[in-house]
Design brief:
mainly beta, Immunoglobulin-like, 5 domains, four-stranded antiparallel sheet, 28 strands, about 10% helix, disordered C terminus, Ig-like_fold, secreted, cell wall, peptidoglycan-anchor, LPXTG-motif cell wall anchor domain-containing protein
Length: about 450
């Protein structure tokens, strides 16, 4: 049996007592201190055992006692046969996915140790990061000012972040685990997408998790209404082509419906133009593009009303006498089918012509209001029609009859003229009588002169 704290010596120790020996024989025996043991338990943040952590054991003077100690699958390292004293575990290799902690871990083997000395050490998991990139769903353009909450998968708030000029959010220092981003505010002009964006930080992950998420831009609507220029009636079946403002083709065969409307939906913000490719029969094709813009963030539908004009026709009236000679200065009024006066004072020119342009298809009338001098007025309506799609000028020939004048001095004619034009005919007989009297006197003088000359000549002969 040894003294407590020392090892029992093993074996026999011989000594000799000599004959007659008076002095005491002394022998020296050395008992070693009883050694102890130490145990290190390596655990993770949630108390799980961590294997493959590597340590060195050093004494209080810093001298290495044992090196390359590695935790087993239970996260344990045991070192035996240690003399009483102070020792330190120094981590030289961290378990996978955990941070290395080189802080020495003190452990003491006491004198006459009865139980193993145990220490525990926790390793924190290595953190990593996540990078979220926000882009336009169609163009891939990066989007600034999208606001997100970083949450646990149970929806617990962790932090709030906003995409930068590069359209990115970078979050560092995330422990391994499962997370989610939830968009709380979309970039201006884009639709909010509140569906959680799930991601994980894996154990031992050394690079940031990359996430790309897109937003659909808020699209706008545009409505065109097509009407008749003159009466405002809706025009169905007018065909258009949609282009970008630079003329790039987008879509063809767009046609106004029964209400004369063409509705374009889901247009991205930008500048556009509509080109009319087919007008209704008899209508003029609209010249030039119809430009419009869809604004970013536009919520209300934009609307425009465009009119088409029926192709206009022309008419010429030719005024002639019965001999086919053209007559100037005949005056006409133009009426529509309802008898409404459209133009008055239309006068034939030196070529006997009146030309009227820009007439909408329909029925019209010319009414003569004043005949050329010396011709009878004929106010019988002259009907004509401007046809739909008429291209050539419509020509109308109108004949006036002369006013018949009776020979001068005729009593009957004088009476007739007097009935039709009393004022003029009152002066006409006086004028005829005066002429007759002058002629009679003149003839008498001439006859008398002739007789006198004859008598005078006969006298000379005798």
């Amino acid at each position: 049996e040894s003294i407590a704290g020392y090892d029992l010596l093993d074996g026999r120790f011989e000594f000799v007592i000599a004959l007659g020996q008076e002095e005491r024989t002394e022998i020296e025996l050395e008992n070693a201190l009883t050694t102890g043991a130490v145990r290190l338990v390596k655990v993770g943040e949630e108390g799980e055992a961590l294997e493959n952590a590597i340590f060195n054991l050093v004494d209080e003077d810093g001298e290495e006692v044992v090196s390359g100690l590695e935790t087993n699958d239970s996260g344990i390292i045991e070192v035996n046969d240690l003399k009483p004293g102070t020792y330190y575990f120094v981590e030289t290799g961290a378990p996978f996915g955990h941070d290395l902690d080189p802080t020495p871990i003190e452990v003491t083997v006491v004198f006459d140790q009865q139980e193993i000395a145990e220490v525990a050490k926790t390793n924190e998991r290595t953190t990593s990061g996540v990078e979220l990139t926000k882009v336009d769903s169609e163009t891939g353009e990066r989007l600034v000012d999208a606001t997100f909450e970083l949450q646990t998968t149970e929806g617990e708030f962790i932090s709030e972040h906003v995409t930068d000029e590069a359209g990115q959010i970078v979050v560092e220092g995330l422990k391994p685990g499962h997370y989610q981003f939830v968009e709380t505010e979309a970039p201006f002009g884009y639709e909010l997408d509140q569906r959680p964006i799930l991601f994980a930080i894996d154990l031992g992950q050394i690079t940031n998790t990359q996430i790309s998420t897109d937003n659909q831009i808020v699209t706008g609507d545009f409505e065109l209404t097509k009407l008749d220029f003159d009466n405002g009636h809706v025009l169905a079946g007018v065909e258009f082509e949609l282009q970008a403002a630079n003329g790039e083709f987008i879509e063809a065969g767009l046609t106004t419906d029964a209400d004369g409307k063409l509705l374009l939906t889901g247009l991205r913000p930008g500048s556009y133009q509509l080109i009319e490719t087919r007008a209704l029969p008899g209508y003029q094709l609209l010249a030039g593009p119809i430009a419009f813009t869809i604004d970013r963030g536009q919520l209300a539908q934009k609307e425009i009303v465009i009119t088409n004009m029926l192709t206009r026709g022309s008419v010429q009236l030719i005024k002639q006498n019965e001999a086919g000679n053209v007559l100037a200065d005949a005056i006409f009024t133009l009426l529509d089918a309802n008898g409404n006066e459209l133009k008055a004072g239309l006068t034939t020119n030196e070529a006997g012509l009146i030309i009227v342009t820009d007439l909408r298809p329909g029925s019209y009338q010319f009414i003569e209001t004043e005949a050329p001098e010396g011709y009878q007025l004929d106010n019988t309506p002259i009907d004509f029609e401007i046809e739909v799609g008429q291209v050539e000028i419509l020509s109308i020939n109108v004949t006036n009859e002369k006013i018949e004048v009776e020979p001068t001095g005729s009593t009957d004619i004088g009476e007739s003229n007097s009935e039709r034009e009393p004022k003029q005919q009152t002066d006409l007989p006086n004028t005829a009588t005066q002429v007759y009297n002058v002629m009679t006197i003149g003839v008498s003088i001439l006859l008398l002169g002739g007789i006198l000359l004859t008598i005078r000549k006969k006298r000379k002969d005798f």
